[in-house]
């Protein structure tokens, strides 16, 4: 599932390509991928332009000139592709937005969605999400207070969108590895120094993942050499049996709270 770095990478790459340009075509091939009748969706999107693209947690928010907002959540298996019709990938496409000869394909929205809302309603729609871990207001003090209130494991807490938004299975494991902590550790048992390491790991791992384009398997457009660049830099996630980049011992899978999790039992405590 795309997480904060993947969605931020999409935002950065899409903005200069579509912002300010009128949308000349809208096609919805799966009605359940949108939250309104298809005719309504097309009527309120066609002819508008994207004023800006923002990200909140794992969502992309397309602010339209009509004062509507398209809220995208890709969920499991979702991805985006931007290009000409002849470059269209052989994937299941549920929604397409077009700018004359260029198209933004919303792929694999079986669980994901592209909803339309009034801009005034966005705060309400996003109100259950926790703080953004890369925002200036996300201070060590705020982080410590958040985690001190949690009784679950690091894994379950880091992926809980109501506690901290944007982190999922991949980056929770990478963060725990960077901090030298096992994902099964209880938040209530962490010492001050461990919390400090964990906070630093969150900022470092997410920041680095954004710089390297996240781990998505498919480029956003033909010639995109950034998207997916972090995949080969993952130290533990989906690396079961491979040697740890620190100590050489094999990375193991130890599921935590019914979620798959990868770690080094030698480097993480």
Automatic annotation (TrEMBL):
GO molecular function: 8-oxo-7,8-dihydroguanine DNA N-glycosylase activity; class I DNA-(apurinic or apyrimidinic site) endonuclease activity; damaged DNA binding; double-stranded DNA binding; zinc ion binding
SMART domains (alphabetical): Fapy_DNA_glyco, H2TH
Alphabetical UniProt keywords: DNA damage, DNA repair, DNA-binding, Glycosidase, Hydrolase, Lyase, Metal-binding, Multifunctional enzyme, Zinc, Zinc-finger
Secreted listed as a keyword: no
Residue stretches making up the FPG-type domain: 235-269
Reactions that this protein is recorded to catalyse: Hydrolysis of DNA containing ring-opened 7-methylguanine residues, releasing 2,6-diamino-4-hydroxy-5-(N-methyl)formamidopyrimidine; 2'-deoxyribonucleotide-(2'-deoxyribose 5'-phosphate)-2'-deoxyribonucleotide-DNA = a 3'-end 2'-deoxyribonucleotide-(2,3-dehydro-2,3-deoxyribose 5'-phosphate)-DNA + a 5'-end 5'-phospho-2'-deoxyribonucleoside-DNA + H(+)
GO BP annotation list: base-excision repair
Entries under Gene3D superfamilies matching the protein: 1.10.8.50, MutM-like, N-terminal
Signal sequence bounds: none
Entries under Pfam families matching the protein: Fapy_DNA_glyco, H2TH
Reported cofactor(s): Zn(2+)
Domain Formamidopyrimidine-DNA glycosylase catalytic as annotated: residue spans: 2-112
Database matches in InterPro entries: FPG_cat, FPG_N, H2TH_FPG, Ribosomal_uS13-like_H2TH, Znf_DNA_glyclase/AP_lyase
Keyword Transferase attributed: no
PANTHER family listed in its UniProt record: FORMAMIDOPYRIMIDINE-DNA GLYCOSYLASE (PTHR22993:SF9)
Assigned protein family: Belongs to the FPG family.
Name recorded for this polypeptide: Fpg/Nei family DNA glycosylase
Organism name: Paenibacillus xerothermodurans
């Amino acid at each position: 599932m795309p997480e904060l770095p993947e969605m931020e990478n999409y935002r950065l790459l899409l903005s200069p390509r579509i912002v300010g340009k009128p949308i000349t075509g809208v096609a919805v091939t799966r009605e359940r991928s949108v939250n309104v009748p298809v005719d309504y969706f097309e009527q309120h999107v066609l002819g508008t332009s994207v004023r800006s693209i923002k990200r909140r947690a794992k969502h992309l928010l397309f602010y339209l000139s009509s004062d509507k907002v398209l809220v995208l959540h890709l969920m499991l298996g979702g991805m985006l592709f931007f290009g000409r019709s002849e470059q269209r990938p052989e994937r299941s496409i549920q929604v397409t937005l077009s700018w004359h000869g260029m198209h933004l394909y919303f792929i694999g929205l079986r669980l994901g969605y592209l909803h339309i809302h009034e801009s005034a309603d966005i705060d309400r729609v996003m109100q259950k999400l926790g703080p953004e871990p890369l925002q200036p207001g996300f201070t060590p003090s705020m982080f410590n207070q958040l985690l001190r209130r949690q009784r679950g494991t690091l894994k379950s807490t880091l992926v809980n969108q109501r506690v901290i938004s944007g982190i999922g299975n991949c980056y929770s494991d990478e963060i725990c590895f960077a901090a030298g902590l096992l994902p099964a550790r209880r938040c209530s048992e962490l010492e001050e120094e461990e919390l400090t390491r964990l906070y630093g790991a969150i900022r470092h791992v997410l920041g680095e993942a954004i710089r390297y384009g996240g781990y998505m398997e498919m480029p956003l457009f033909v010639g995109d050499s950034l998207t997916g660049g972090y995949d080969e830099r993952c130290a533990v996630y989906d690396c079961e049996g491979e040697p740890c980049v620190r100590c050489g011992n094999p990375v193991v899978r130890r599921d935590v709270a019914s979620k798959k999790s990868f770690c080094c039992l030698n480097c993480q405590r």
